[in-house]
Amino acid sequence: MVKVDGYEVPEGLFYSKEWFWVKVEGDKARLGITDYAQKQLREIVFVELPGVGGSVKANEPFGSVESVKAVSDLVSPLTGTIDQTNPDVTSKPELLNEDPFNKGWLLVITPSNLNAELAALMDFNKSVEWHKSMITKG
Amino acid sequence: MPRRIIIIGAHAAAVDAASAARKTDRTAEIILLTTEKYAGYSRCGIPFVIGGHIPRFTDLIVYPAAYYQMMKLDLRRETTATNVDTKAKTVETTDKAGKTGTLPYDSLIFATGASTWTPPIKGKEKLGTFSVRTIEDGERIDEAIKAGAKTAVVMGGSLIGLEMAVGLTERGLKTTVVEMLPQLLPVMLDADMAKGVQEMLEAKGIRILVGKGVEEFIGSDKVTEVVAAGEHLAADIFISAFGVRPNTELAAKAGITLGDTRAIRTNLRMETNVPGVYAIGDCAESTHMVTQRPALQQLGTVAVKHGKVAGTNAAGGYALFPGVLGSAVTKFFDLEVGSTGITESFAKRSGIEIVTGTISGKTRAQYFPGAQPIKVKVIVEKEMERVIGAQIVGNEDVTQRINAISLAIQKQMTVRELSKSDTCYAPPLCETWELMALAAEAAVMRLR
User: Fold this and answer.
1) Cβ neighbours of residue B138 closer than 8 Å, sequence gap 6 or more
2) Predicted-complex ipTM score
3) Is the pTM of this model over 0.90?
C-alpha cells in the first residue's frame, strides 16, 4: 500500500476512473470505492445498493452514496451479476469512510467479461500515477 | 427533459449551491460559469498565503476537479455570462476563445460576487496598486514581494486590510495601514475593543493611521509613495482594501430588483423578484436577524449558507434562509478577534437603546501556566433585555464563544439567561466563571 498525498492506494487491486477498486477473487470480483473517493465525499450517511441477483454494467451507475454535503453515483467498473451486497454498509455507511478497501466493500459480482474489462482498468502503478495527476491538477 | 440549473459564479456560494442542487435533484443538468481560471477556492485564505502560513495559492482550492466529476457538475472556467433574458430564460456566454453561446435554463442562480473598489484618488492608474480578491491578485502581490518590495501601504482597516497588513509584516515589509474612520475594524468592533487590537498591531511594528484618507499616489509609472494626511509614506506595494461592491450589473440589466443595500434583493428562499431566479453570496442581500432590516454581509459563512438554500430551491426542493448576524472572526498574529450581532455604535446609529457589559479575564485558570488574556463585551437591548451583540478579543478560545453568543442571539436569549448559563470548567481550559456569563452579569447590573 502506498499513500499519495494522504490517499491510500493498496497494491493488488484494479482501479477505475470512477473511483472504484476491484479485487479479483477466483471467478468473482469484489468492488468498492477508493480512499480518495470517500475523502472527497467526507462523512457518508447513506448508501443505496441494488439487490442480490441483479446485474451491473461497466460504466453505468448501480446505486449512490450520499454524504452531508455531496452525493455521487456508484458507477460499476465491471459487468456481471450480483452475488452479494455488503449488509453492513447500509446500516453503517461510515464503514466506507473508515475502511473503504476492506469492511467498506460494496458488491461481490460474477463478472461476465472479466478479462476484457480488467484491461480497461488501471493497475496499481497506473492508479498511483492517476492519483498523483488528480492532486496536481487540483 | 432534466431540469437545467445555471449558476453564474463558481466559488463559495456557487459550489455549495451546486452541491445542494445535486442532492435535491439527481438528474438535473447543473452548469457553473466562472470568468476565472481557478474555481472553488477560498478567497479568505489569500492573506494567509501572503503571510506564509499556507505554502501555495493552489492549496486554497477547496474543490478539486474530481469533486465536480463525482457530483456531475458542469464547470465552465474562463466563461463570462454576458446577458440574461429572464423572459426567454436564457444566459448568453462568451468563452476564452471568444466563442459565444446561449444557454436555456429552468433555474438561474446569480453568484456573481463582488469587486474591490478604490475611490478616485489622484494617480490611481499607476502600477503597483493591488487589490485582494482573486488568486491572481495574491500571486501578483507575492511576486512583488519576491521582487524586493520593502514597504507597503494598506488602505482600509477592516478585516481584509488588516489581515493583509499582518501578512505583509510577516514577510518583512514595513507596513502602514490608513483607515478613514477613527478606529480599526469599524464594522466588527466598538472603539473600546478596537483599541486593544490597534495597540497590539502597533507593538508588532505596523504603523496605523486612523481618521485619515489616502490623497495621492506618487511615482513615475509605478507607485513608490502614497500621500495620506499630507504625509508621504513609502509604498513599494499599495493594497486597496477600501471595500467591495456587489456585482449586480448583469442582474440589474436583466430587470432583477436591487435592495436597499444596492445588492440583489432576495426573499427567504434566496429568490429574486423574478421567480426561478436566485441570488447568493457577496452579490445578494438578506435580512439581519437583530434589526430585521435588509443587510449585506459579504462573508464566506453567509455565502455557503445562501448557496445551500438557493441550490435546494432551484432544484425543486424547499429551504429557507433565516438571516444574518454578521458573525465573524479572524486572527492577527496571535490575537483572535471575533464579533456577532450588532455593535454598540451601530445600535446607537439605529436608535436602539442598549446597555453593555465588558469583562477581562484569562483563557485558563489564572494560576495555570500559559493562561492568555481575553476580553468579552456583550451588547443588550434595554427594553426586552435581549442580547443583540458581542465582541471578543483574546489570544485563544474566541471562535466558539462567538458561536455560542450567536446562538444566544438567534434564540433571543435575555441577558439574565446568559448570565445564568450552565458552563464547563477545568483549570487548563478556562476559568470557573465563564466570561460570557460574567460579561452578561456586568450588563445586568447596568439594567438596574
Assistant:
1) B46, B49, B50, B57, B132
2) 0.84
3) yes
